[in-house]
Specification:
Number of strands: 0
Largest sheet: none
Helix content: over 70%
Shape: globular
Distance between the termini: 29 Å
């Protein structure tokens, strides 16, 4: 069972770190340049199709874990919805407080990731809504809850598994900016990990 879970984790991490971060942008750039040889950025429709395709692959690869989660949700709908609502409100409050503290300490307007999303929301609002409200939550759920946490389901290691999952979750949100934006991103890494 552990061997199966480790293999699933390996597949999902390779899919994300190689497929999503390297292969997909390269493919979409080439596709855009084939259509518009002088384009300076990937067209939003091409991006949407790329994100949608990657999301379909991630769902297909993670379908067993997603179905297990759905079955648990279906058995305990009221309790699950209550937990989701309470945790969402708590996280919104926590993120607001931590973001204010980090902005004050680092003298920044927010994490580089958040600033990039804000900028993208002005130029491509529909794509930003799709990426932040549908794509990212499903992909992150597949990676962090679906592949990392099951490895640490033994009660003795659950907290350790949560810490590992949280650290990687935080890292993927700041890794693009970690070396270019300086130490402030480490503070935001902590905030994303806390989420």
């Amino acid at each position: 069972m552990l061997k199966h879970r480790l293999f699933f984790l390996f597949k999902v991490l390779i899919l994300y770190f190689v497929g999503y971060l390297i292969v997909l942008p390269s493919f979409l750039t080439r596709l855009t340049l084939m259509i518009q040889p002088y384009a300076t950025r990937i067209h939003p429709i091409t991006l949407f199709c790329g994100y949608f395709g990657f999301l379909a692959v991630m769902i297909y690869v993670s379908k067993e874990e997603l179905l297990k989660g759905y079955k648990i949700f279906k058995l305990n709908k009221k309790k699950c919805i209550s937990i989701i609502l309470k945790n969402t409100l708590f996280l919104l409050l926590l993120v607001s407080i931590l973001s204010c503290v980090a902005s004050y300490l680092f003298k920044t307007a927010g994490s580089s990731n958040q600033l990039a999303l804000n900028s993208q929301s002005v130029t491509n609002p529909c794509l930003t809504v799709f990426v932040t409200c549908i794509f990212a939550p499903i992909v992150e759920e597949c990676i962090f809850r679906g592949s990392i946490l099951p490895i640490f389901e033994d009660q003795r290691y659950k907290f350790f598994g949560l810490c590992i999952s949280a650290a990687i979750f935080g890292f993927i949100h700041v890794m693009s900016y970690l070396f270019s934006s300086g130490l402030s991103e480490i503070g935001y890494w902590f905030i994303y990990s806390t989420i």
